[in-house]
Design goal:
24% strand, 3-stranded antiparallel beta sheet, 15 strands, 5-stranded mixed beta sheet, alpha+beta
Amino acid sequence: MIRFDDLSLFVRTAALGSFSAAAREANLLPGQASAAIKRLERELDLRLFVRSTRALRLTTEGEQYLGTARDVLDTLHAGRERLRAADGPLTGVLRVAAPSDLGRNALLPWLTEFRAAHPALVLRLFLSDQVTDVFRDPVDVAFRLGRFDDARYVTLPLAPANRRVLVASPAYLAARGRPQTLDDLRQHDGLLYTLGGRTHDQWAFEVDGRRQVVPMRAALLSDDAEITRRWAVAGQGIAYKSWLDVCDDVRDARLELLFPQHGESVPLHLVCPHRKQFSPAIRQLHALLQPRFEALTARLPAG
């Protein structure tokens, strides 16, 4: 008889490409994960992986069986969540990934409030500016900025009207002057962030239905997007940030908007690999957050 724990280890090993990584995730020894896969192979009477000292890859049969294994686990997960929903209280573990600045500035108090309302739920929050792979990484749902054309994703909108805005502190503008055109930005200090080894120094704007790109001179760079906001508040230069990250700073006059009519669209969504993973916890989290994010974007000046 096939064990569901073995099936789950097979799916995670295929995603991670490593017995050791799958074992660590499941709090097992590597030998236990390997034994589980061998047990599954005996039950199926086929080989799922090609093993070598340097690599682990799926066999043709393993690739074919992977979809079936995922469907079985999804069906079990969905059934369990329906039972939980019928019982009322949210339980289990909800693993959430979010960008660092959005997580710290907006989500942290709201997620804390959500957890307090559901004390039987364990909430794990992963903050990173690296884009989470919801198919590979051990998360249930991710907050994503931008547009998604990949049909594999299922998204729940949170802030469809969100966009990037240019901001600088009153002290910086008093010292360096306020740019009068987008091209004037070239003469100013850009507060830039790097992601995946790439520096985002080409700032794109929507102007009269056309895309205009302004190359920026870097004054300061960081691989943490939250740091660029702090530098802007400290008067170190101009930042180009999601409105959701800086709206409180603008409201409290720590930052001022430049060219508020221009800015690249970056809608915010909750993202899962497919609809079967929208558990009651995710649906209730979305119901809590959507009106709050929409209230924040309602303060955004018209573009």
